[in-house]
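Annex B.
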Amino acid sequence: MSKPQEDFLDKTSRFLAKREGIDKTLKLLRYTARLIVSLQPKDQELTKRLAAFEKSVGVSRKAFRLGKFLQDVNSLRHSQTKDAQFVLELVAYGGEGIYYFLEQFTWLVKTGALSKDLEERLAYASAFAELVGYAGNVWLSLLKLRKLLQQERELEAAIAKTCKEEGLTDAALAAKLGAVRFQRRLRTAFIVQDLADSVMALNDVAGGKIRGINSPVVLALAGLTSGSISFYKNWKL
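Peroxisomal biogenesis factor 11: predicted structure tokens.
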């Protein structure tokens, strides 16, 4: 007997049962609220409520990072790559892992369990580690994107050759080409996501002193862009 196909409610239930599902939903809500706040007059009651909501959600999301650094530790433990690519993975997973590890203490500060005196130093250290991790991720994604583009060109050439010789398109090759193109578009979206997150991390590292990226609208749009892509990625899994 075949397994019944999932409907929207099934998928939503499964999505929200996962830590990543709830975290990415909160991320979308947070940056949507931040964008509205950045575009509205500050003295409006709705703006004040949304600002408080955005701040509360930001603290809530940190609780979902408890133990998340172990995912990066495991990724490094089970890595099969060597030489230069492993160094990039060390930068990417190492930076991200340190960021998630420090975020646990930031959450404890926000909840009052640790002294507020630690907040500024923890925020800087975690933002710096996050930025390093994104730099490694972008570089790794560019390498994977180049490989996908090469595969796409090879498949296109193979399909053109088959079509010329036999007058027909190989269905298996066409399906494989479609899958590679989807992965290429997805990898491009991941690069955009990491770049958007990098903008916010760079602003935190610089203490909001870099003109252009310190705009509340720019930061809100960067967060919303990243949130939308990460939401889609986890929804499809």
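The mean pLDDT is 92. Residues 126 and 181 are 35 Å apart (CA to CA). Further annotation is deferred to the next reporting cycle.
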